[in-house]
Amino acid sequence: MAVTIKDIARIAGVAHSTVSRALRGHPAIAPETVARIKQIADELGYVPSAVARGLKTSRSNALGVIISRIDDPFFSEILQGIEDETQAAGYSLFVAASNRDFEREKSIVQAMGERRVEGVIVCSGHLGSDHARQLQQYGIPLVAVDNQALDDYQFSISHDHFFGSSRLTQHLIDLGHTRIAYLGNQRSGRTTQERLNGYRHTMQTAGLPLPDGYIFDGPDGRPESGVLAAQHFLGLPQRPTAIVCFNDMMAIGLMRALQDAGLTIPQDCSLTGFDNITFSAYTNPTLTTFEQPKYELGYTATRMMMSILQDPNTQPDPQTITLRGRLIPRASTGAPFQ
Fold first, then answer.
1. Which domains does the chain have, with CATH numbers?
2. Which DSSP category does 237 fall into?
3. If DSSP codes are grouped into helix, strand and coil, which group holds residue 185?
4. How many Å separate Cα 99 from the centre of its chain?
5. Which helix (H) or strand (E) holds 207?
6. Calpha distance 217→228 (Å, rounded)
7. pTM of this prediction?
């Protein structure tokens, strides 16, 4: 059972209000009394209650983070960036996954309001606008990380997806590919559209055709969508020699399905991913990808939140930051064999 201030007061033979003041170093308490009470607290293993302290100060020293899925490795590095900066600032984290479920989002928003988090970093790409407004009605500031509705947020961090997809497509063109397809994600909205636009623009600038069937959207960003895409691309009259994938997870699923069908990567088909999750360096062959600065996205979002919280009586100007990553060529891309 947790040791309380009343336990310390009983042993010290003083009022519990005296213990509370002594533990805070209040100048009205004699130094020798402060020293004795702190010694008793240490001997008993007393741990101050952050909740009780928050009730006194009207501050929780906690930030909420909403992500799409716990099991998606993309979010782990973003969370690490958030965690490192929040710890340095003396804050704790309350992390919840929405799983893109409306009712789940509703309960998360309610829980964050009840826990009186001081701010929420939204890493879930599809947090409903109603729920975002509910958080704001609680007086909780929001910072969005690569959200699909960035226009709904005054403070946001995003990645230049057009640039990344364009660089991947140009990499394949430079290798000599002319039949390049694109695998998108139906659930990703703005992000997949920006990546598709980068692919289209680069293909058109190079004067390369976009045959029917060369653009295919999987139902989500999971490896299983890559398997579905393999069935689609293998069924085309003229198969592509290279495929730009929405993310690494889809590319990994696509790679496995093409290999199971007897194709060799990259001799029969070059593949690129997007994000540079940890697994991409351990596929066979290793996956060419575009690295999002995931840690920096989380770190920068937290720095932005801290600047908002620095003076709660001042409304800072809206801020939007766009970051760029880098191309990472690996063994899954090469010159076309056929």
1. 5-48 (1.10.260.40), 61-160+294-324 (3.40.50.2300), 161-292 (3.40.50.2300)
2. S
3. strand
4. 13
5. none
6. 10
7. 0.79
